[in-house]
C-alpha cells in the first residue's frame, strides 16, 4: 500500500495511493501503517481507536483510509409492545448514543405505550427517489421529452432491469422549469435502503433519455429527490418508508406514569410542536424525533445523514373521551436491513436484537423505528407538560 501525504499551508491530509485504492487497503497491517503515518503527522497517540473486535476487511465497503474505530455506547430501550403489519409483539430496541437521559426517557414512553395495550403502526408507502435534472432548449423541448418518457415506459423499465434484479421503477414525475427539466424517479428497492441502487438505475435511464430526446443530463441528482436535506416534497409525498404510529393512552395511565393530565399534554403539543414549529418555519412538527432516529440509525448501521429526512415528523395529540390519542406521521424513514452498514458485526448484532437483519425485514424495521419515535415524543411531551424536563436531565447527569 502507498500512503501519499498531501500538504498545504493549512490543510495536511492523507490519501491512499493507486495500489491502496485498488486493494482497498484493509489488511490489519495496512490499517496500522496508515495509523502510524497519522500519528507521525499529527502527534496524536490515538490509542483508543485501535481497540476493536472485527477484521478491518469487514469495513472495506464502508470507509476509505481506515485507521481504527469510534465506539459509541450501546443500550436498549423497552420493551415496547408493537402491533404492526410486520412488527408484532414486544421489542427491546437497540440505541447508540452519548446523550444522557435519552434512553431512560424513551423507555419511559415505551412503558406507557405498553401499559396502554401497545402501539398500532402501519407502512403506507415504500419507495426510494432519485431526481435528475436535464438541460433542455425550452418549454417545447420539455414537452417533447416528457412525451417520449410517457411513450417508452417499457424501454425505461428495461434500462432499470439491466442494472438491478432487486429494484423496480414505479413512477416518474416531471417538473419542467424554463430550460431545466427535473424528473423524480421512485423505485421499490426491496430490503436495501436503496440510494445507490436508485442512483445507478437512474443513470441508465438518463442515458437512454439523452440518446433519444437531445436533453442533456446536468446531474443525476437535481435536489428534488430530496436526499439528506429538509424538503417540503419529502414531507408531503414521502421518501423511503412512509409510516404512521399511534397509541391511545387511558387517562389514569397518563396521570400515573407521566405525572400530567391529558389536556396539559394536548396543549403542550399544540403550542410547542404545531404553533411553535410553524412560527419558526420548521418542517418538523415534533419535539425531538431526530434524537430517537440518530440513536437507532447509528446502532443498526443506517446512514445517519438520513436523520435529516426522518425528522420531517409531525406529532399530533388529541383528547378522545378523556384519554390521550398520540400519533407520529413519518413520511421519510430511509432504512435498510441488507447492505451498507448493516454488514458490520456490531450493527448486525443490533439488528438481530429486533429480528430485523436480512431479507424481508425492512418494513418491520421501519415500523419499530416509528414506534420508538412515538415513545420518545410521548415521554418528552409528558415531562414538559409536567415541568420535569430539566430535573430529569439533572438527575441523569446531563
Describe what you observe in this structure:
The chain is an alpha+beta fold and 398 residues long. It folds into three domains: 3-59, no CATH class; 74-126 and 241-395, 3-hydroxy-3-methylglutaryl-coenzyme A Reductase, Chain A, domain 2 (Alpha-Beta Complex), CATH 3.90.770.10; 132-219, Alpha-Beta Plaits (2-Layer Sandwich), CATH 3.30.70. Helix content is 41%, strand content 24%. The chain has 14 helices and twelve strands. The strands form two sheets. Strands 3, 4, 5, 6, 7, 8, 9, 10, 11 and 12 form a ten-stranded mixed sheet that branches. Helix 9 (262-280) packs across helix 13 (362-385) and helix 10 (289-300) packs antiparallel against helix 13. It is globular and about 65 Å long. 44% of the residues are buried. The model is unreliable at 1-23 (pLDDT under 50).
At the first level of CATH, the class of the largest domain is: Alpha Beta
Instruction: Give the overall shape.
Output: globular
Order of helices and strands: EEHHEEHEEHHEEHEHEHHHHEEHHH
The count of domains is 3
Overall pLDDT: 92
Q: Class by helix and strand content?
A: alpha+beta
Low-pLDDT parts are 1-23
**Number of DSSP helical runs:** 14
Strand content: 15-25%
Indicate the radius of gyration in whole angstroms. 24 Å
Number of β-strand runs: 12
From the 3D structure, determine the CATH topology of the largest domain: 3-hydroxy-3-methylglutaryl-coenzyme A Reductase, Chain A, domain 2
Full CATH superfamily name of the largest domain: 3-hydroxy-3-methylglutaryl-coenzyme A Reductase, Chain A, domain 2
